[in-house]
Amino acid sequence: MTLLFFLGKWKLEKHGPINSFLQSEVLAELELDEQFGLRNAARLYLDNHYLEFRKDTVFWKDVESGEKGVVEKSGKWHLIGDTLIIMDYEKTVTSKYLITKDGEDGFSQRDIYPRGISKSPVIYSRTKE
Fold this sequence. Notes:
Lipocalin; globular; alpha+beta; 9 strands; 8-stranded antiparallel barrel; 48% strand; 25% helix
């Protein structure tokens, strides 16, 4: 996979970890108002999230707690083999993702944690904008 493949804008098609959480017993056991708040935050994220790769900077929308809601984010990005690395400009956070290409117009990513790799993929498709 090359850097050129990622250049452009990508929309979120499926977020396995969020979908799993929304169907989990953990969520079902919470108070109704907590369930409602978490479901709303998840819906905001799913409806607004995208990735836009330009040169060495990536832009995206995220959801933050409290009054902030949906926020614009940016960070430095690069590839090492099949690993996408994103360094958030606002926070001292570096995220790593295992990337799998899904044809010419899509890719999936799995979060890489210190103790392993996420089982659920996050799937993106290239936008036509």
